[in-house]
Specification:
This protein is α/β, with parallel strands linked by helices and 132 residues long. It is 42% helix and 11% strand. The longest helix is centred in the middle third of the chain and has 18 residues, at 64-81.
Length: 132
């Protein structure tokens, strides 16, 4: 994309890329950038679906779903106010033994209306079906 701050067409944006993380924590640790971009994309009538990957474990955010879920609900509300549905599809990589507890993260995201897939490949496949 000519400008990674503005999406064009079908695209995937890695907010962990250096251009986004210089001088700031990685999105695995700090959800601020991810949340701001989520709300920006929700306001774009061309956005058909949003895909998120959430990584658990030591060194990751202590409870990512607790911050992402309200933002996802706001994003979906923004889309509804614009007269459209906005599916959010995610994968959560982790285990029950991680400090964040896999099942708790999945439950929180699902309660926010997220379709949680078993892997990032499954999530990407579902996203492809939505946009085709």
């Amino acid at each position: 994309m000519p400008d990674s701050l503005h999406s064009q067409g079908h695209c995937a944006i890695d907010l962990g890329e250096e251009e986004f993380t210089v001088g700031r924590p990685h999105p695995m640790i700090d959800n601020d950038l991810r949340i701001r971009r989520l709300l920006q994309e929700a306001g774009d009538p061309q956005t058909a679906v949003i895909m998120l990957d959430v990584v658990l474990g030591f060194g990751a955010h202590p409870d990512p779903a607790s911050e992402l879920a309200p933002a996802i609900q706001r994003a979906r509300q923004v889309a509804l106010e614009g007269g459209r549905e906005l599916p959010v599809i995610a994968s959560v990589t982790g285990t029950e033994g991680d400090p964040q507890c896999l099942s708790r993260q999945v439950k929180t995201l699902e309660e926010a209306g997220v379709l949680v897939c078993s892997s990032n490949a499954a999530a990407a496949s579902l996203v492809a079906k939505v946009v085709s």
